[in-house]
Design brief:
The chain has 256 residues and is α/β, with parallel strands linked by helices. It has a single domain, classed as Rossmann fold (3-Layer(aba) Sandwich), CATH 3.40.50.300. 38% of the residues lie in helices and 23% in strands. The protein is built from ten helices and ten strands. The protein has a six-stranded mixed sheet, sandwiched between helices. A four-stranded antiparallel sheet has the order 2-1-4-5, covered by helices on one side. Strand 7, helix 7 and strand 8 form a beta-alpha-beta unit. The longest helix is centred in the middle third of the chain and has 20 residues. The radius of gyration is 19 Å and the shape is globular.
């Protein structure tokens, strides 16, 4: 049984199809990769799954439930977290405050109780703060909890984004180019963290990534998009040897 199922997903912007009839399944506990050249529709796909965009056609099924009509905050509450290709941090806030802010999606005390700072709201605040500390410790940046986000190196900023996504207690985590701009040492560290998220936390992960070394070391299966369409799916090694995939990345050699 599929944990996440994408059925014939299509997205038009005006007359242009950014995504065209894409279907695949992700299984629970899997690290699943989505690759493709620039403009292939990878981030559009993530925006559709997380409902930051509405599909023109198709369905998104999560744990046997059709989540296509839901809004972004409802998707987060169901257990789907994500990071973004571009940095989305509160740069003037500390590491701890950034992660703490991520808990607002699951806040149960209610806005009035929070405003009046009732006993239940204060209790929930304490729990959220404790969990925020636990997340940043697990992700290896606990020593930086009082640093402003703007002062962090790029690699640590990307790790902080994952920490914020973890504040929603996701069962499914969508990572959009998590190692972009990192040096080899930072990349290796983030790869190890992603493996720990699956191994220690049991989180199912879907990753969009251009770094093929990362994709091969992390993903059990991958889907390849090109010009909004799925052109290949399978094990990393067999997909990398697929002629259509090679052509999409390198271009078709002219004859003569």
């Amino acid at each position: 049984m599929a944990f996440l199922e994408v059925r014939n997903l299509t997205k038009h912007f005006g007359g242009l199809a950014s995504l065209n009839g894409v279907s695949f399944e992700v299984y629970e506990g899997e690290i699943f990769g989505i690759i493709g050249p620039n403009g292939a529709g990878k981030t559009t796909l993530f925006n559709l799954i997380s409902r930051f965009l509405s599909p023109s056609n198709g369905q998104i099924i999560f744990k046997e439930r059709d989540i296509t009509p839901l809004r972004p905050h409802e998707i987060a509450q169901l257990g789907i977290g994500r990071t973004f290709q571009n940095t989305t941090l509160f740069m003037k806030s500390t590491v701890l405050d950034n992660v703490y802010a991520g808990f607002h999606m699951s806040y149960k005390a209610g806005h009035w109780k929070a405003f009046l700072h009732t006993l239940s709201a204060r209790k929930e605040d304490r729990i959220a703060l404790q969990r925020a500390n636990e997340i940043i410790e697990f992700m290896g940046i606990g020593r930086l909890k009082d640093e402003l986000a703007e002062n962090l190196p790029h690699g640590h900023q990307r790790i902080l984004e994952i920490c914020i996504a973890l504040a929603t207690s996701p069962e499914l985590l969508l990572l959009d180019e998590p190692v972009t701009g990192m040096n080899p040492e930072e990349t290796q560290y983030v790869v190890s963290l992603i493996k720990r998220l699956r191994g220690d936390k049991g989180i199912t992960i879907v990753i969009v990534e251009h770094n093929m070394i990362v994709v091969r070391s992390l993903c059990e299966r991958i889907v390849v998009l090109d010009s909004g369409m799925k052109i290949a799916e399978g094990l990393p090694q067999e997909v990398m040897e697929n002629e259509r995939v090679i052509e999409a990345y390198l271009g078709k050699e002219e004859v003569g």
